[in-house]
Amino acid sequence: MRILVNGEVREDLEKLAGSLPAGQALEQVGAALFREGVLVVGVRVDGHDVTGEDRSSWGERGDVGELALATQTPGGLLEASLRVSQEWLPPLRAELTGCADHFRLGDDAQAIEALMRVVEGLRLLFVGVGQIQRLLDSHGLDAEGRVASFQAEIPRLLDEIIEAQEGRDWILLADLLEYDVTEQLALWEEASGHLLESLA
């Protein structure tokens, strides 16, 4: 099996993988790269991008011709993750405001549709912040509890949003979105900005 790391052939890793099935080869190669100080952030098997969910379809294959890996240092991944989370904030804030307006105007259909987008956006941001927390922990960095605070507040607010929706309290729901959730996003924007500055 040919193994490429960031586009370069790595014969040493090819020898390490030997004739292992693709999934086991990836584990061995990933561990070796981790010892080199980098993390695998992307996997292509025979020219096709794959995820962990796809692993059952290729993990046992012994006929994989090429395993191409993208890697990044933990610091580089942390910086990229922080930048992505910051880029995600303005459209999410705009969606929050629009959703709150729809609820206040009694436009239930558009409000519920927007709310689904808001909840999914918050979920994705929450997952990203979880990754950032793990990277901070691995670096021994501390964000003065700001990451943990965000991770605690978002699920609490989502519970309140669901409760308000189930109770059909549209004004409370609009207020939660426009004020409480927006405040948490502003706090995260400030915290992630400080983290980016400290990395620089």
What does this structure look like?
With 200 residues, the chain is an alpha+beta fold. The protein folds into two domains: 2-72, Roll (Ubiquitin-like (UB roll)); 75-199, Four Helix Bundle (Hemerythrin (Met), subunit A) (Up-down Bundle). The protein contains seven helices and five strands. Strand 3 (39-45) and strand 4 form a beta hairpin. The radius of gyration is 21 Å and the shape is elongated.
Looking at this protein, list some descriptive labels.
Ubiquitin-like (UB roll); 2 domains; 200 residues; Four Helix Bundle (Hemerythrin (Met), subunit A); 12% strand; 7 helices; 5-stranded mixed β-sheet; elongated; alpha+beta
Task: Please identify, by name, the CATH architecture of the largest domain.
Answer: Up-down Bundle
Taking the alpha carbons of the first and last residues, their distance comes to 39 Å
Summarize the biggest pleated sheet.
5 strands, mixed
Percent range of helical residues: over 70%
Low-confidence stretches: none
* Residue-averaged pLDDT: 88
Radius of gyration: 21 Å
